[in-house]
Design brief:
This protein is of the alpha+beta class. It has one domain (12-161): Peptide Deformylase, CATH 3.90.45. The chain is built from 3 helices and 8 strands, in the order αβββββββααβ. It has helices at 26-41, 130-143, 155-158; strands at residues 47-49, 59-62, 76-87, 90-94, 102-108, 111-117, 123-129, 159-161. The protein is globular. The chain binds nickel (II) ion. Nickel (II) ion (NI) binds next to helix 2.
Length: 166
Amino acid sequence: MALLSILTYPDERLKQVSEDVELVDDELRAFIIDLEETMRSGPGGVGIAAPQVGKFIRVAIVDVSAKPKIEQHGRLVLINPEITKWDGMKVGREGCMSVPDFTGNVIRAEQIKLNYLDEQGESQSLESSGYEARAIQHELDHLDGMLFLDRLVSRRNDLFKRKVYK
Ligand code: NI
């Protein structure tokens, strides 16, 4: 296992659109182990996407199970994920390992439906809502070269400097 280094804003590579995974194999699973370890090494690490470590493939991990009293699915490895349905809209505060000095208020769908492949290459689908759905949407944005900064309605009103990263 190894910790991978995180690209941080304004690194231009974070704008790159990632490619679909063609083959779910041991090499990919080994990368996912490192990606997950990197996610868990960060403060508040509830999600990470492969392009954040400079690997431009459509893989993301979300695990919001540390957050109490919310609906969630535990550890999710999402390969070639695709959101098929969006419902509702809500503003919420987001942070990102690639934007360590700021948080921001972002509008996201409250509920989503999602198709993806799991680590065995099997097709899966799930419905997610609230905080977990927000985390999934945030990570999937990375696969399309988007940061939460790109979704702020107003940088003046919706962007907040972190005093301490916690
Ligand atoms: Ni992020």
